Amino acid sequence: MRLHMTNSGAITLIAPSHFKQFEILVDEQPGALLDRAIARVGQRADDEHIWVNPQVIRFLSGKAGDADWEAGFEAMVGFARKFNWVNEAGLIRAHMVRNAGSAGSSVEDFKAAMRMLAAGVSAITTGDVAQPSGMVISSLTAISADPPLVGFFVHRDSSMLEPLNTHGKFVANILGQAHQHVVTKFLKMPQGCARFADGQWGAGLDGLPILLDALANVECEVIHTTTLGTHEMFVGKIRKTTTDDAGSPLVNFNAGIRGLAQ
Known about the structure:
Elements: E1 2-5, E2 11-14, E3 23-27, H1 31-41, E4 42-44, E5 49-52, H2 54-61, H3 67-82, E6 92-99, H4 107-114, E7 119-120, E8 122-127, E9 132-137, E10 141-145, E11 148-155, H5 161-167, E12 169-174, H6 180-188, E13 201-203, E14 209-211, E15 216-228, E16 231-243, E17 250-253, E18 256-259
Parallel strand pairs: 1-3, 3-6
Antiparallel strand pairs: 1-2, 4-5, 5-6, 7-17, 8-9, 8-12, 10-11, 11-16, 12-15, 13-14, 15-16, 17-18
């Protein structure tokens, strides 16, 4: 198995059932970022090794409690103990493998490529009709049908981050061509009631602001967040949906928001 410390801030476990080796793949990243990643899984042993908490491995594996996996994991730990690769605290020593060439493309190249990805436009709303908060996104994505999950991304400096974390619920209002004025307000006005001055707004579940004539409303409870690079990912479990298939969607393409050509 391989613990991957990415330069996006995520830590993942690759091949969790491969017990014949255990190493840590480290992307190119600033020392401070690496130090924080190490602190999340254990502690530094030396310049080339990390002491890893086995409970972190169990959690990341997604297989904790499975009898066969637990047996294989215990055998791996037992083998490591024979070579003094397990310390008195029960932490497992693992070698760091530097992932050369993992810096990634430039920000400019990334943005140029993503501008060519056509995506639907949604207004994410939270709070209530008296104190609403909202933002326009094109990152809404379906994650799972059973259970029904959707996700989207919020920049770490966005004025929407605190309201979402405070309320823990949101509505993804999927916008049509008739909602260009809603997009304009959301992009130009400061956070709060000013963004909701245009549009047919009402109250959904728990009083959440909902666009009554949206192509679809997806009312959600936040069940997971994680930091990936410059953004926070929010995953919502869908509580209720409404749809109106009479309209035509807005699309974000090549840095412009436009109607979908028929």
